[in-house]
DNA sequence: CGCAGAATTCAACGGCCAATGAGTTCGGCT
DNA sequence: AGCCGAACTCATTGGCCGTTGAATTCTGCG
């Protein structure tokens, strides 16, 4: 275990981003409370004190790590532009594609895992869901009880995530995108537009 | 804070059950890792060492606390006896009724919350789901891909729990049983018996 | 070149936790 | 009545964690 000398490194170290990436992965794997500053530091190959130097507190690190590499509201808006026909399918497909793109450093999973047993994270998740997804969807569909419909969709979407990532149900993990879209798309479409 | 004297209490104390009840509530509220032996002991109005006296380790306490006050396999079996017609509705209704009956000391919520960031609990949850619910359901419905269908149902059921208990979506929490059964019943029925 | 400040490490503090072991009081069996 | 074991508490230990402050080395600007 070669200890490194103290002091600044030469060149562009990109350490800050390395820490953020490591933090996102740890939070996504274990949630807020289980993730230790020390484990993030180790994963980023850095001293724990440096994490504090950059982000102040663990809460600060979490807040910084939860930023998406894209704007989720835009993604939702683009889906809504195409009208309400086939919206259910588009929602599922977008979700799955986005997940594949994010890989192991997935803020949504991190938020979801952290929300359990850490109320501030639960509130962040609720606010993200409400502001970026539920509100736009609820105003876009022109039917009765729009908010309840949006939350029904959210419950199925969250269920997909938890079933695959937390409970790790095998056939759901193994299923390909087409199968999942065919299964879940009509469910969401029904929640959005059918009679309840 | 009146310190109690050491030594055995007179009469039937029922302390063991008090500890188990307190543990179930704490685990259901905060999950395994966030729950401390000390908080359980405090909630049961008892010294922390007594919890160890009864259950050995925290894992032991958790295992004991996760026992249901009824046999879930029986409940599932009774639902399956009535055939596959309306099975989706019966599943949702049973789930909701069972939840209302269990109140704040709910092993399913405890298991779900603990599964995040504590792999042994995740495995317990997976084994419970598989053995007590998914396997019986998958063998009872006589269709193609029974296992995938069962897991699709599980994903929606888990989604209901997480959306209401963890994310706390307001309209889902406020909705009455009839509304939820009308919304979710057909979804589950479709997962179980319709073409995919 | 000189210097302010950023990047980085080290060592340490106080806090909380699970677990342990020894000691105290009581119930129940003989 | 006597005693063994169960119920119960107290004090302590060792470990991990978040956070802090000082020390060291490098960069970039004037």
UniProtKB/TrEMBL annotation, chains A, B:
Entry keyword Chloroplast: no
Domain HTH tetR-type: 13-73
Domain of life of the native organism: Bacteria
Keyword NAD set for record: no
Keyword annotations: DNA-binding
InterPro entries assigned: Homeodomain-like_sf (IPR009057), HTH-type_TetR-like_transc_reg (IPR050109), HTH_TetR (IPR001647), Tet_transcr_reg_TetR-rel_C_sf (IPR036271), TetR_C_16 (IPR041678)
Name used for this protein in its record: TetR family transcriptional regulator
